[in-house]
Amino acid sequence: MIRTLIAGDQPLLRTGVRTILATQPDLVVVGEAQNRREAVEQSQNLRPDVVLVDVRPPMLEGMATIRQLVGAGRDADRPGVLMLTAIDTEDHVHAALHAGVSGILVEDCDAEELIRAVHAVARRQVVLSSGITERLITNFLATHPRLPHTGLGVLDVLTSREQEVLRLLSTGRSNAEIASHLFISDQTAKTHVRRVLNKLKLRDRVHAVVFGYENGVVVPGQRRP
Question: pTM for this structure?
Answer without folding.
Answer: 0.65
